[in-house]
Design brief:
The protein has helices at residues 17-31, 61-73, 81-101, 145-160, 181-187; strands at 5-13, 38-44, 51-58, 134-137, 140-142, 165-168, 178-180, 192-195, 207-209, 217-219, 222-229, 235-237. Helices cover 29% and strands 24% of the residues. Helix 1 packs across helix 3. It is of the alpha+beta class. The radius of gyration is 18 Å and the shape is globular. The longest helix has 21 residues, at 81-101. Strands 5-4-1-3-2-6 form a six-stranded antiparallel sheet, sandwiched between helices. Strands 8, 10, 11 and 12 form a four-stranded mixed sheet that branches. Strands 7-9 form a two-stranded antiparallel sheet.
């Protein structure tokens, strides 16, 4: 994933990670991003209150500039259709999972996911009456000062690969079910897997139960998935699909 061009966007989102994930996927679809784009969430602690900003790494300057233009022209924050849809989809997904766990529902839904950049690109279904987001690309920034600063923060972390929780990345749609660590590294952009309490790392043949939720993070230039031991000698991602508020810091 060399030669990437990063655009940061901050809508001031204060909801849980699940909602931020849906918002990121919805934006990726609006922007018409393809499967090799990388989309991350970033925790912003500066400003009036902690919130989540987003970033997208794109393969060309032209693609990044097109994303910049769309984002600076379309409201995407609170009060917009896009934000409301992301919240509704996240709530529906959580309810479906709860029903499945209780044995009450068959087929918890096909997921609104997208994420492969189907490229609806239409006339901006996310447009609404809300405010424009903060957007950053290179030396350019746009939008309200606080949100623009959050966008700069997100873009800088992603570009330096020192922070950012990846929601969309090459192979992200294929890492489902149970697979070995070696297979995860082979079919996705994840560079390394770490295991809590195991400095030497996992065996390549160790089985990872993904729970349909694999969110690696940028650390020192590598996309790293933190995992922990689980039942039967398996591993599971450290981040659970629907963390409680106290665990939803990133």
């Amino acid at each position: 994933m060399t030669g990437r061009y990063v655009v940061g966007v901050d809508t001031g989102h204060t909801g849980p990670p699940r909602e931020a994930d849906h918002l990121l996927r919805a934006l990726a679809e609006e922007l018409g991003l393809d499967a090799d784009a990388v989309g991350c969430t970033h925790h912003v602690r500066d400003g009036r209150r902690p919130h989540t900003a987003l970033s997208f790494a794109l393969p060309s300057a032209a693609a990044a500039r097109a994303a910049w233009q769309w984002l600076t022209e379309h409201p995407t924050g609170p009060g917009t259709v896009l934000e409301a849809e992301a919240e509704a989809e996240a709530e529906a997904e959580a309810e479906a999972e709860a029903e499945a766990e209780a044995g009450a529902g068959a087929g918890a839904g096909d997921g609104s996911g997208g994420g492969d950049g189907a490229g609806s690109g239409g006339e901006g279904s996310g447009a609404g009456t809300g405010a424009l987001p903060g957007v950053a690309f290179g030396d350019d920034r746009h939008g309200p000062e606080e949100l623009a600063a959050g966008a700069v923060h997100a873009a800088a972390e992603h570009e330096a690969r020192t922070g950012g929780r990846a929601v969309l990345y090459p192979g992200s749609e294929t890492v489902t079910g149970t697979l070995t660590v070696a297979r995860l590294l082979e079919v996705s952009a994840v560079d390394r897997v770490t295991v809590l309490g195991a400095p030497e790392g996992p065996s390549p043949e160790a089985k990872l139960v993904t729970r349909g939720h694999v969110r690696p993070e940028w650390r020192e230039g590598l996309l790293v998935l933190a995992a922990m031991p689980a039942a039967g000698g398996t591993l599971v991602p450290f981040e659970v699909p629907d963390p409680t508020p106290c665990c939803a810091g990133h």
